[in-house]
Write a structure and sequence with these properties.
InterPro entries: 23SrRNA_MeTrfase_RlmC (IPR011825), MeTrfase_TrmA_AS (IPR030390), SAM-dependent_MTases_sf (IPR029063), U5_MeTrfase_fam (IPR010280). One of its GO terms (biological process) is rRNA base methylation. Belongs to the class I-like SAM-binding methyltransferase superfamily. RNA M5U methyltransferase family. By secondary structure, this protein is α/β, with parallel strands linked by helices. It has two domains: about 210 residues, 3-Layer(aba) Sandwich (Rossmann fold); about 140 residues, OB fold (Dihydrolipoamide Acetyltransferase, E2P). Helices cover about 30% and strands about 25% of the residues. The protein contains ten helices and 17 strands. Strand 9 and strand 10 form a beta hairpin. The chain is globular. Bound molecules: S-adenosylmethionine. The site of S-adenosylmethionine (SAM) has 19 residues, from helix 6 and strand 12. S-adenosylmethionine (SAM) binds next to helix 6 and strand 12.
Length: about 375
């Protein structure tokens, strides 16, 4: 993929861009095989590639520059804004939306936040698009000082950009590299964006994790369903379930599905999807996954886990080994912690492993693995 910003040395977000795409995939696969050297793997499935450009459904734009001339993109190490409106990772639909947003920043008086001076209001613009059409725009502001002014220009903004079906403001008062704060103020009537992967309805909401590479994520969920099709599935736990993508793909009509996730907003999405699918035996709860598990005494038939980069950790692994679910489906965005966790899961054989390239041009990998109790 050619990127003029990378070539000019202005953006290095895609660290692996100079590598041929086939080499990127081969290097990721080799790294995973190396990390799992000491663990016998019954079957390695070939890596699932991604489109090399326009694969992201989400842009996180740092806003810099001035209120009359805002710059959307990143801030480099010298503190200068770099315009990434034309970043080739985003769909073609993003750049026109960002360009049309620029005058509204001035109209609403949203002075870009200046990191060194700790002054200004607008920190980030977060834009997400559904494959079903429709977009979600979030303004991350330092305070609610300019909220009234933003609300005033909102009707004009919505008229200009009707594709923005969900619009909100996130208040992030802390001077830190944290992207979002706890307070979310909805500006649009709709609070969620409808998405659908493999005919499974999903929801994208503020403050709720959603996969950023929809094409590969849809294949990941579908593969999870394929790999679990032959298994007994009366009970299924989907830990770190987010909006429920894995559990909702794998559950059958009779399955008792329990989804556990720390974000209440994501749980609301998962619940809505289950209702839309007419699934009756489901419960989705906003809880710490390890805390939930440690309060249970028996295991489900299938335990599905998709944790953040830190992995599931010692405590949850010990619980799993003690209650002995028949099968574990572990999807990981960090092969290092995946390998560590698998060595802790004594009594299981590693049946199948496959790399899903959710994050092209970076060193990051998503790995799906199926473990069966011996
Ligand atoms: C990699 S995401 C996976 C989400 C989901 N499975 C999917 O396919 O989109 C990890 C999820 O773990 C959640 N999470 C983080 N810490 C958690 C915890 N202690 N307990 C439960 N969920 C947690 C995050 O909010 C996030 O939704």
């Amino acid at each position: 993929m050619f990127c003029p910003r990378y070539d000019a040395g202005q953006c290095r977000s895609c660290q692996w861009l100079p590598k041929e795409y086939v080499t990127q995939l081969a290097d990721k696969q080799a790294r995973i095989e190396h990390l799992l050297t000491d663990i016998p793997v019954a079957e390695w499935r070939p890596p699932v590639p991604s489109a090399q450009r326009r694969f992201r459904n989400k842009a996180k734009m740092v806003v810099s520059g001035s209120v009359e001339r805002p710059i959307l993109g990143i801030v480099n190490t010298e503190g200068e804004g770099v315009d990434l409106i034309d970043c080739p990772l985003y769909p073609d639909t993003f750049a026109p939306v960002f360009r049309q947003l620029l005058p509204f920043i001035a109209k609403a008086g949203l002075t870009p936040y200046h990191i060194a001076r700790r002054k200004g209001e607008l920190k980030y613009l977060l834009l997400t698009e559904s494959t079903q059409g429709g977009m979600m725009l979030r303004f991350v502001l330092r305070s609610d000082k300019k909220l009234a002014q933003l609300k005033k220009v909102l009707p004009e903004l919505q008229q200009c950009l009707p594709q923005l079906t969900v619009i909100s403001v996130n208040i992030q008062p802390v001077h830190m590299a944290i992207m979002e704060g706890e307070q979310e103020i909805m500006l649009s009537d709709a609070s969620a964006l409808a998405e659908s992967f493999n005919h499974i309805p999903l929801w994208i909401r503020p403050q709720s994790f959603f996969q950023t590479n929809p094409e590969v994520a849809a294949k990941l969920y579908l593969t999870a369903r394929e790999w679990t099709q032959g298994l007994k599935l009366d009970t299924l736990w989907d830990l770190f379930c987010g909006v429920g993508g894995f559990g909702l793909h794998c559950a059958r009509a009779e399955t008792q599905l329990t989804g556990i996730e720390i974000s209440a907003e994501a749980i609301a999405c998962a619940q809505d999807s289950a209702t839309k699918l007419g699934l009756k035996n489901t419960q989705f709860r906003a809880l710490d996954a390890t805390h939930y598990a440690l309060n249970e005494t028996s295991a489900p038939d299938l335990l599905l886990v998709n944790p953040p980069r830190r992995g599931i950790g010692q405590e949850l692994c010990e619980f799993i080994v003690s209650v002995k679910p028949a099968a574990i489906l572990y999807s990981s965005c960090n092969p290092e912690t995946l390998a560590k966790d698998i060595t802790r899961l004594q009594g299981y054989r590693l049946e199948r492993v496959q790399l899903f390239d959710l994050f092209p041009h970076t060193a990051h990998s998503e790995v799906l693995s199926l473990l069966i109790r011996e």
